[in-house]
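subagent[fold] <- orchestrator: predict structure for attached chain, return tokens only, no commentary.
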Amino acid sequence: MDIIELLKVILLGIVEGITEWLPISSTGHMILVDEFIHLNVSQDFMDVFLVVIQLGAILAVVVLYWNKLWPFYIKKLPRRTQMAIAKKPKWAQVILNFVERYCDKDKWILWFKIVVACLPTIIIALPFNDFIEAHFNNYVVVAIALIVYGVLFIIVENYNKGREPQCTSLEDLTFKTAFLIGCFQVLSVVPGTSRSGSTIIGGILVGTSRTVAAEFTFFLGIPVMFGASLLKLLKFGFGFTGTEVLILVIGMVVSFVVSILAIKFLMGYIKKHDFKAFGWYRIVLGALVLVYFIGKTLLA
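subagent[fold] -> orchestrator:
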């Protein structure tokens, strides 16, 4: 791999790391970048690369939020708890001892909420994934989705102005609210929508604070993006060349580093600002995508 190809991979990793977590659509940006920068690889591998590179972004969330996500610890049980467990049947004692000593119940409940929120996507979106990729992965759909959801961000923020969020912490997030946010995540199967954008809008509409909506969006990305990457790898197979493996590793490392910076920026930004700026950015970007590709088609 020469220096030019290396720089292309690094640029794609930077774009992925920035746009995956900001509500501005990584797909829309990747389409634009791919228009001007082509990796010297097969189209099948490129399809895999654009999905698997997200693993770096996932790892950034895991690292940043490890203390909120890791559901195990080692705790010495109070004598009263030990005595209460001793009165249970043997099989129950084994389970209760494990749960009480090693399991952080609050974090397990959070993971159950994440699973519940993922169910709509698994049930509704997954069966149509190939159809959507074949028929909707084009600049017209991406541009329209960018503009429509940009407008929605502005409308939702105007509607939300003056409203007090009912859910201001992850502990307050109910299973019902998690499921509703998961329903909004289904909308992100349309390219250009932005997974983080749709779930953040959903979170705000159902009464969460911007911080809770953003953090829960990050956590939802772990199983969703890991699952999508695994499906792509299984479909493509694991017969990568040495160069292809290097491209995947570099792309993931760059997206990991940039994702950490992007997540920290977003969490700091929303403490003082709303999402309107991202809405206007999406509208402008969508218009540019339409103008560029329509102009290109007419000139051809």
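orchestrator: received. Logging for downstream: Residues 290 and 296 are 10 Å apart (CA to CA). The chain has a mean pLDDT of 89.
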